[in-house]
Amino acid sequence: MVDSNRTALVTGGNRGLGLETCRQLARAGLRVILGSRDEPAGRAAAARLAKEGAHAEPCALDVTDTASIAGAAARLAREGTRLDVLVNNAGIALSGFDAEVARRTLAVNFFGALDVTDALLPLMRDGGNIVMVSSGMGELSEVSPPLRQRLLDEGLTRDALVELMRSFVRDVERGTHAEAGWPSSAYRVSKVGLNALVRVLAPALAPRRIHVNAVCPGWVRTDMGGRGASRDVATGAASIVWGALNAGGETGGFFRDGRRIAW
């Protein structure tokens, strides 16, 4: 039976890890809102879950479109929905590497998660859980020591982090990103930024007891991960669901399979 008193919203919920996360959260008894950029695909995914006895409600939500984000938030507010869990799962990994790839990747993987969180925070109950679906590829060993120091600085502000992410795109455009200490991978940088966002948001949301964590699902056999990945989708999603349920009240950390891992 669905416990309508506990509600989770999952972005990018129509396939892969997002869909399996919706499935597992629904089976855990939560009311699940399945966010999807492609509205028909979201409805089809929800119908598929319904046939399995796992109920989810489709919601049009394009994390790169501020109007779409605002529309989803307004709809939930009109319905009187309060969120206990937000899973920022939507993500892309594009082929190639240039300024456009960098811009598009960060628009989804970093800025999309930031904008969705900002829009839905007013709807979150105190004591709720926010999960940023990250990756081991976002480990700080991938950036230069000076950048690593800036990203780990306890005084790092949200504005400074946003500017760092924008500077990466500018550096790629100018051909100076390696000199600035960035790797030649927009995906890696997007996850480095997402992890840093967790460290910025966790103390800011502590007064509301909202827990914010980054979770690595591992290398999973999805469209993004490929058939050669070492993990099945159910195992990867279980790591995300652990963060969503967060029985231990962890915050400000990076986890895989319920265990803290290094930044």
What does this entry look like structurally?
This protein is an alpha/beta fold. The protein has one domain (3-260): Rossmann fold. Helix content is 46%, strand content 17%. The protein is built from 10 helices and 8 strands. The chain has an 8-stranded mixed beta sheet with strand order 3-2-1-4-5-6-7-8, with helices on both faces. A hairpin with a 2-residue loop joins β7 and β8 (259-260). α1 crosses α10, α3 packs parallel to α5 and α4 packs parallel to α9 (186-205). The radius of gyration is 17 Å and the shape is globular. The termini are far apart. The model has no long low-confidence stretch (mean pLDDT 94).
Percent helix, as a range, is 40-55%
What's the Cα radius of gyration?
17 Å
How many domains make up the coordinates? 1
Poorly predicted parts = none
Report the CATH topology name: Rossmann fold
Spatial order of the strands forming the largest sheet: 3-2-1-4-5-6-7-8
Order of helices and strands: EHEHEHEHHEHHHHEHEE
For CATH, the homologous superfamily is named as NAD(P)-binding Rossmann-like Domain
Structural class: alpha/beta
Can you name the CATH architecture? 3-Layer(aba) Sandwich
For the record, give the distance between the C-alpha atoms at the N and C termini, rounded to a whole number: 38 Å
Mean pLDDT over the residues: 94
Please tell me what the overall shape is.
Answer: globular
Text of the CATH class: Alpha Beta
- Quickly count the helices: 10
Strand residue content? 15-25%
Q: Describe the largest sheet.
A: 8 strands, mixed
Extended strand count: 8
